[in-house]
Please model this.
Amino acid sequence: MNIINKINYYTEYITIGFFYIMFVSVILNIILRYMLNINFIFMQELVMYMHAFIFLFGISICLKDNSHVRIDIISNKLNKKTCKAIDNFGYIFFIMPFCVFVMYESSSMIIRSWIMLEVSSEPGGLPIVYLLKSSIYLFSLLILFQTICKLFDSK
Model:
């Protein structure tokens, strides 16, 4: 579990870094577009990529911190043991199969994208679409790792 905790730790800081990159890119894009009348497609795509990375990688962080959406009306009335059993049921029968399904279904698309080193369809766009598509697989893997941590967590 220690390696999974390290992966989750670094994922959190990488995601925070993506947020700052996105923030600075948006500010620069606004200044360039509205003050200097300059528009770069790659900057718009960079913001889109960072936004996708933040959401995809942030989901595992939310799972780790238990900050995801719950039905508090029900869970507040249950004891901790029952809540843990419901969580474990959801991890095993919903989250884990979902992650495996997403990894299975996205694999062929990601492999094709890497083989052709897919680039943006926009002129002047980022030539790294294959990395964006790979984040789908990584998203599922991170959630799967976090779910395994949650299942074997003694708390």
